[in-house]
Design brief:
Distance between the termini: 54 Å
Number of domains: 3
CATH topology of the largest domain: Aminoglycoside 3'-phosphotransferase, Chain: A, domain 2
CATH superfamily of the largest domain: Aminoglycoside phosphotransferase (APH), C-terminal lobe
Largest sheet: 6 strands, antiparallel
Structural class: alpha/beta
CATH class of the largest domain: Alpha Beta
Oligomer: single chain
Shape: globular
C-alpha cells in the first residue's frame, strides 16, 4: 500500500517539542532484522508527509515530523495520535488492510518494531501504522487505465459508499459542515490558485468560477444549514477518488481517509459523492459517474441533496485544479506541461458544472418483464439522467430496503391500490425535485393507468420540460420467461410474479392517439441500447413538448 498526500490544506495547532532523529531511525529500519516477521528486503517510499516501508507482507507508514499548516505531525505525541486516528477511521472501510498501530523502540541507530502491548512500547521513539500490502494494480484508477473497470465495480462502489454513509457518525451540534465552515475551503481554493496565474484569460476564468461559487453558496446556505440539522453532515472518508479505492478478493476497499483534519471529513455526504462523480468525469467516464450517482441515490433516497451537487462538483474540481497548478509551479519540462494540462482539464470540468442542463421528464409504459429497467439504465449513463423506480420507492415508503422480499399477496398491503397510488404520488414529488435541481429524470414504472400518465404529463407541462413516454413491448411468451427468471433469481427490487403479470396484461390501458405523439415504442427483443438512445436524443432535441 502506498498512501498519497491529501489535497486540501487547513490550519491545525499543537504544542511543539524536540523528537529523535527520524532520519536515522528510518535508515535503521531498512534492516530486515528489525521486523517481527519474515522480510527479505525493505523498500522505502516517500511522500511529503509520510515514509512508507514495504517489508514482506506488510507496509509500515510513518508520519514525518512536519508542521505544514494544514497538518501538524511535529511531535511524537501528535504522530502517535494521528496513527491511532488513521487506524480508527480507515478500519471503517478497509478493516482487512489496516491492521494495527505499532511502536518503534530501541536506539535510533538500531530500531525495531514491537506491538503496542509490548512493555518496551512505553519507551517508543516512533510509531507506525501497520497495513497489509496489496498489488497497486488493484487500484481502481489503474484498472480504469487498463480497461478492466466495469459497471459491476461502479455498482459495488455505490453499495459500499451508501452503506458506509448510513452507519457513520453524524455531526449533531458540532460546527463542522455549517455554511460558514463550508465556505472556507471553497474560498481558499481560489485564493491559493490566483497568485500562481499570470495570463489574463486564466485569471478571468478563475474570477468567474469564484463569483459563481460564492453566489451559489449564498443561495444554498439555508439548504446547507438544514442538512446539517438533519444529520446529513457525517464523519465521511473525505478523499473518495479512484486512487484511494481498490478491488481485492471481489470486494471494494476504500483506504487513505483524511485523518489529520476533521473539517475535511466531517462533510455533507453529497460533498463526498461529488468527489467520486467528478473524478470519474475527469478520467473520461462521466457515464460511470452518472451511474454511480444514480445507484447511490437509489439506495439512499437522498434526492434532496441534488440541489447542492453542482456546487460540490465545482468545489471538488477546483481542489484538483489547485493541486495541479501548485505542482506545475514546483516542476519543469514535461512534468510541468502535464500538470498545466491537468489544471486546464479540471477548470473546464468545473466550468461545465456551472452551465444549465437540459431537464426532461421521461416515463415508461409496459408490464413487468417488458425490459424497462434494463433499457433505461444505459439512458441514465448517456443522458446524465436520474432514474426513479417504482419498485424501489414503493418499498422505501414502507421502510423496506430495495431488495427486501416481502411475499405480499397480489393486491394487498404493499401492493394494494392505495399503496400504488401513494407510490405514484411519491414518484411525482421526486420527479419534480429532480427536475428542479436541473437533472433529466426517468420514471421507471408500469404506468398502465392512463390517468397516472396524464398526471406526469401535467408535471412536465408545469415545469416546461420535454416529456416522453417509452412504450415497452414484448411478446407474451418472452414476458413470462423474463418474469419467471427474475423471480427465481430474487436479486431485483421487483417482486412481480406470473400472476401479477397476467393481471397487468388484463388491466393495461394502451396509449391513446394523443399520447402516441409523445411515445417511442421500444421492443427490447429487437432494439439495441444504441438505437434507443439515438431515438430518445432526437426527441429530446426538440425541447419541451
Amino acid at each position: 500500500m502506498i498512501p498519497k498526500a491529501k489535497d486540501t490544506p487547513v490550519p491545525a495547532q499543537a504544542d511543539k517539542r524536540s523528537d529523535p532523529d527520524q532520519g536515522q531511525v528510518l535508515r535503521g529500519l531498512l534492516d530486515p532484522q528489525c521486523y517481527p516477521h519474515e522480510v527479505a528486503a525493505v523498500e522505502r517510499i516517500e511522500t511529503h508527509i509520510s515514509t512508507v516501508l514495504l517489508a514482506g507482507a506488510y507496509a509500515y507508514k510513518i508520519k514525518k515530523p512536519v508542521d505544514m499548516g494544514f497538518l501538524d505531525f511535529s511531535t511524537l505525541a501528535l504522530r502517535h495520535h494521528y496513527c491511532e486516528e488513521e487506524l480508527r477511521l480507515n478500519r471503517r472501510l478497509a478493516p482487512g488492510l489496516y491492521l494495527d498501530v505499532v511502536a518503534i523502540v530501541g536506539g535510533a541507530a538500531a530500531p525495531r518494531i514491537v506491538a503496542m502491548d509490548d512493555p518496551l512500547a512505553a519507551d517508543a521513539i516512533e510509531f507506525a501504522v501497520k497495513m497489509r500490502r496489496f498489488d497497486q494494480s488493484a487500484l481502481l484508477d489503474h484498472m480504469l487505465d487498463r480497461g478492466e473497470l466495469t459497471p459491476h465495480h461502479i455498482d459495488a462502489l455505490a453499495e459500499t459508499v451508501a452503506g458506509f454513509h448510513a452507519r457513520i457518525a453524524r455531526a449533531g451540534d458540532v460546527d463542522h459542515g455549517t455554511p460558514e465552515r463550508i465556505a472556507l475551503p471553497m474560498r481558499q481554493n481560489f485564493s491559493q490558485i490566483r497568485p500562481l496565474l499570470s495570463a489574463a484569460g486564466e485569471i478571468a476564468e478563475l474570477d468567474a468560477l469564484e463569483s459563481w461559487s460564492i453566489a451559489r453558496h449564498n443561495e444554498l446556505a439555508p439548504v446547507m444549514a438544514a442538512r446539517h440539522s438533519a444529520g446529513d453532515v457525517r464523519e465521511c472518508h473525505g478523499d473518495l477518488h479512484l486512487g484511494n479505492i481498490t478491488w481485492i478478493d471481489g470486494e471494494i476497499h476504500v483506504f487513505d481517509c483524511i485523518e489529520f483534519n476533521p473539517e475535511l471529513r466531517w462533510i455533507d455526504v453529497v460533498n463526498e459523492v461529488a468527489f467520486t462523480v467528478m473524478d470519474l468525469a475527469a478520467r473520461g467516464r462521466p457515464d460511470w459517474g452518472a451511474r454511480f450517482l444514480n445507484a447511490y441515490l437509489e439506495i439512499t433516497g437522498d434526492y434532496a441533496s441534488l440541489r447542492l451537487l453542482p456546487y460540490y462538483l465545482v468545489y471538488r474540481a477546483m481542489v484538483r485544479a489547485k493541486v495541479a497548478r501548485i505542482r506545475a509551479a514546483q516542476t519543469g519540462g514535461e512534468a510541468q506541461r502535464a500538470a498545466l494540462a491537468d489544471y486546464a482539464g479540471h477548470i473546464r470540468l468545473a466550468r461545465s458544472y456551472t452551465l444549465p442542463r437540459q431537464a426532461a421528464l421521461i416515463i415508461t409504459h409496459g408490464v413487468s418483464g417488458s425490459g424497462k429497467s434494463t433499457a433505461t439504465l444505459p439512458l441514465v449513463e448517456q443522458l446524465g439522467a436520474l432514474r426513479l423506480r417504482s419498485d424501489v420507492e414503493r418499498k422505501r415508503l414502507h421502510g423496506l430496503a430495495r431488495d427486501a422480499r416481502t411475499g405480499t399477496p397480489l393486491g394487498t398491503g404493499l401492493y394494494s391500490d392505495a399503496a400504488s397510488m401513494d407510490t405514484y404520488v411519491e414518484l411525482g414529488s421526486l420527479a419534480v425535485r429532480t427536475i428542479e435541481a436541473g437533472y433529466p429524470v426517468i420514471v421507471d414504472a408500469t404506468f398502465l393507468n392512463a390517468a397516472r400518465r396524464m398526471a406526469f404529463r401535467a408535471i412536465a407541462a408545469d415545469l416546461k420540460v420535454a416529456y416522453l413516454i417509452l412504450d415497452f413491448v414484448a411478446d407474451a411468451a418472452e414476458l413470462r420467461r423474463r418474469v419467471s427468471q427474475r423471480q427465481a433469481q430474487g436479486k431485483d427490487a421487483s417482486e412481480a410474479t406470473l400472476a401479477v403479470l397476467e393481471r397487468q396484461l388484463r388491466n393495461d390501458e394502451p396509449l391513446d392517439a394523443g399520447e402516441s405523439d409523445y411515445a417511442i415504442v421500444i421492443d427490447t427483443q429487437a432494439d439495441t441500447p444504441a438505437d434507443i438512445l439515438a431515438r430518445v436524443r432526437v426527441r429530446l432535441a426538440r425541447g419541451a413538448v
